[in-house]
Amino acid sequence: RLPTRVRIVEVGPRDGLQNEQQPISTDLKVELIERLANAGIATIEAGSFVNPKWVPQMAGSDEVFRQMGRTPGVQYAALTPNLQGAQRALEAGASELAIFAAASEAFSQKNINCSIEQSLVRFKPVMELAHTAGIPVRGYVSCVVGCPYQGEVEPQVVAQVSRQLLDLGCYEISLGDTIGVGTPASITRMLDAVAEEVAIDLLAVHLHDTYGQAIANIYASLLRGVRVIDSSVAGLGGCPYARGASGNVATEDVLYLLDGLGIEHGINLQAVAEAGHFITQALGRPNGSRAGRALLAK
Ligand code: HMG
Ligand code: MG
Fold this sequence. Notes:
Largest sheet: 8 strands, parallel, barrel
EC number: 4.1.3.4
Catalytic activity: (3S)-3-hydroxy-3-methylglutaryl-CoA = acetoacetate + acetyl-CoA
Number of strands: 10
GO molecular function, one term: hydroxymethylglutaryl-CoA lyase activity
Bound molecules: 3-hydroxy-3-methylglutaryl-coenzyme A, magnesium ion
InterPro entries: Aldolase_TIM, HMG_CoA_lyase_AS, HMGL, PYR_CT
Protein name: hydroxymethylglutaryl-CoA lyase
Number of helices: 12
Strand order of the largest sheet: 1-2-3-4-5-8-9-10
């Protein structure tokens, strides 16, 4: 049965821009975030607080968080790998944190330079800090169906890591198909395994669209009862630790799907399409949203 309402987590300003090679000004990032908030998106991942040596584009996240105007009711989330990042994020005024683990040992090592188990140890002080500050924390699991280094990933491992993040105190677990290899069959198998450990209403899907399966995978996830979807305006992005992986599913495409299914989301699709046009023009990139392009051509 399909849900009646879905929450969108916009990850474009972080996941979408983190891999961009050309310099992007703080003003441009801020305008993108403000446009997305004005369009009615209630959760926006606005940046990350990681080692700038590895992800230079996010080095200015402190400045972004300090400069952007805040819309009441909007959560401005920051991706943080450890205590150092969490402290920086809170000082800059993040209203939500996201920690990120993986269901693949090889990816964990490449991405955050430690094992899955060590990463969970590193997250403990982050959770304590956030708890003291009264800030909610979201947990990501990467490589939920496939890993760029290790190949296929067992749904049981995804379920275990999801459970561990929940036990640490995350309010929601976002399941990342980092390299977009899933299909409705493998995504459904994975969701069924995870739902044994974590209630379906605490799960989100975070699907990169490398093989063009993301919209089909979202429909399959909705049919399983998932009510939170991560997406990126204009389909921006990719992961610096997953070569060849394309951006997340485009927010505009997801909203068009939800509208067609009669599922509420509270977002102005036209305004998101305009934000997608704005950012892709500014970056000199093609707009990766099919729905966005169609709406703008009207
Ligand atoms: P490490 O080398 O193990 O950390 O890196 P360390 O604690 O040994 O510190 C080494 C150096 O990093 C030190 O600096 C620290 O100060 C610095 P030095 O003394 O050499 O000058 N450092 C930091 N600097 C700034 N902010 C910090 C921080 N922490 C340490 N928070 C670390 C571990 C995780 C920090 C590193 O590997 C890193 O930053 N990796 C980048 C990971 C990343 O951003 N990946 C992309 C995002 S994840 C993603 O896209 C997937 C997702 O979208 C879901 C999906 O699609 O599946 C979420
Ligand atoms: Mg991602």
